[in-house]
Amino acid sequence: MTNTLDLTVHDEPWREAAAIVDEGLGTSNEQAAPLHEVQPLQCFVRTPEGQVVGGAVGRTWGRCVELQQLWVQPERRGEGLGTRLIRAFEQRAIERGCRLAYLETFSFQAPALYRSLGYEVVATIEGYGDGIAKYLMTHALKAP
Question: So what's the pLDDT on residue 144?
Fold first, then answer.
């Protein structure tokens, strides 16, 4: 039966086909795990006028919290905002019952910041251009 199927490779995005794959994977995952328990978690730093100058975006699930994105406006870096965002993000995760935080970061991003906050590299993926590596980092969270 597979002899009648056509396999194609695409260098440009084919959004419709990618959406079908995404939906199919989502359905399979929902059947295998309680993904309805995944909750978004976000923290932002704003100016008095309400302009966002930094943020931490991720999600919690069970006893784990994933920090998916951390960003601070370039001209505001070095003011401790990244640390404040991460600590607030972790605190809310602890309140939700999380005991392990994890993230992925490239070597040109903020691994030094994460290390200074207690995160440890548990896996390294090398082979990106210009000697860039990706790190999987984890940090044990302590309940009050």
Answer: 75
